[in-house]
Design brief:
This protein is an alpha+beta fold and 302 residues long. It has two domains: 28-147, TolB, N-terminal domain (Rossmann fold, 3-Layer(aba) Sandwich), CATH 3.40.50.10070; 154-301, Porin. Helix content is 21%, strand content 50%. The chain is built from four helices and 14 strands. It has an eight-stranded antiparallel beta barrel with strand order 7-8-9-10-11-12-13-14. Strands 1, 2, 3, 4, 5 and 6 form a six-stranded mixed beta sheet that branches. Helix 2 crosses helix 3. The longest helix is centred in the first third of the chain and has 27 residues, at 3-29. The radius of gyration is 38 Å and the shape is rod-shaped. The termini are far apart.
């Protein structure tokens, strides 16, 4: 046999070997078979529809989908669970009888099943979780609203008053304290508040006043009908001394803060009664001294 004819015969044998063994194996490796899906709390027709949608999505991605398992190296299994109006779809990817990947996704309603099936098919091919396989054109309704729901806060106005003392302001008489605020109860034991608290007093021809507008927070030690609390605040305020005889006005303004402790009564009701001990102060001096107020207030939250 001539060398050329021998080479041609060997080439034919090599091509025949590729066609008989190698190419079928390569084709088998890229071929998917989507088996029958299970169903829980829904009809088998729904499960079959999801199966067809996933098979169609795989095909549209350029993947080979076989009608039988024996011609496929990759088998896709799954289950459809209905929860109210929503569907939870779980899928798995098997090679050689072993599960190599699995994921699940929720469709808020039946109209989203095609979007979910497409996401699941992409996740199976790339072996990535559905959150990674997300695209701008296949965001589901549940994903769009995820993270936007929050616990409702209990919002209340608060008004209080009581006897106060003005310190480092040259007034020894009892002053009148007034408290106005708005409260956001963000947690059963935590409340934020925006408030204005002031104290005003007069002795003979001298009038003194101090007030702070502040943002604060209260912590409640329990959630029962009578709830003790402690609070703190930080804000901006001012203090003034005014003499009617000499018409002399001394004033100071700047940042300040305050601490409080007390209890809320009837807290399980919409309207609460508050009894608190309050101390507030300024960081600035008034005639060389730091002004402050201390008082006991009683108030309503409504």
């Amino acid at each position: 046999m001539k060398p050329f004819e021998r080479m041609r015969e060997m080439s034919f044998k090599f091509v025949a070997f590729l066609m008989a063994f190698v190419l079928p194996v390569l084709g088998l490796a890229d071929s998917y078979y989507v088996e029958k899906f299970g169903s829980v709390s829904t009809s088998q027709e729904d499960a079959d529809s999801v199966r067809e949608l996933i098979a169609s999505s795989l095909s549209s991605m350029g993947e080979s989908v076989s009608p039988t398992a024996k011609d496929s190296a990759i088998v896709v299994g799954g289950k459809v669970v209905k929860l109210g109006a929503s569907y939870v779809i779980t899928v798995s990817k098997r090679k050689g009888g072993k599960v190599v990947f699995g994921t699940q996704m929720k469709a808020a309603r039946a109209e989203e099943l095609d979007v979910v099936a497409n996401r699941l098919a992409r996740a199976l091919v790339d072996e990535q979780q559905v959150a990674v396989a997300q695209r701008v054109d296949d965001v589901t309704e549940s994903e769009a609203s995820k993270g936007t729901t929050r616990t409702a806060t209990v919002n209340r106005w608060s008004v209080g008053f009581g006897p106060y003392s003005l310190r480092s302001m040259g007034l020894d008489e009892t002053a009148f304290g007034l408290y106005l605020g708005y409260n956001w109860e963000v947690k059963p034991q935590v409340a934020l508040n925006l408030s204005y608290e002031s104290a005003s007093g007069e002795k003979e021809s001298k009038t003194s006043h101090m007030g702070i507008f502040a943002l604060g927070a209260n912590y409640f030690f329990n959630t029962s009908d009578i709830s003790p609390f402690v609070g703190a605040k930080f804000g901006y305020g001012s203090a003034q001394n005014w003499s009617l005889n000499t018409f002399e006005l001394a004033s100071s303004s700047g940042f300040g803060g305050g601490l409080s402790a007390g209890a809320h009564f009837f807290r399980t009701s919409r309207v609460n009664l508050e009894l608190a001990l309050s101390w507030q102060f300024l960081f600035t001096d008034l005639k060389g001294q730091r002004p402050s107020t201390t008082g006991i207030r009683i108030g309503l939250l409504f």
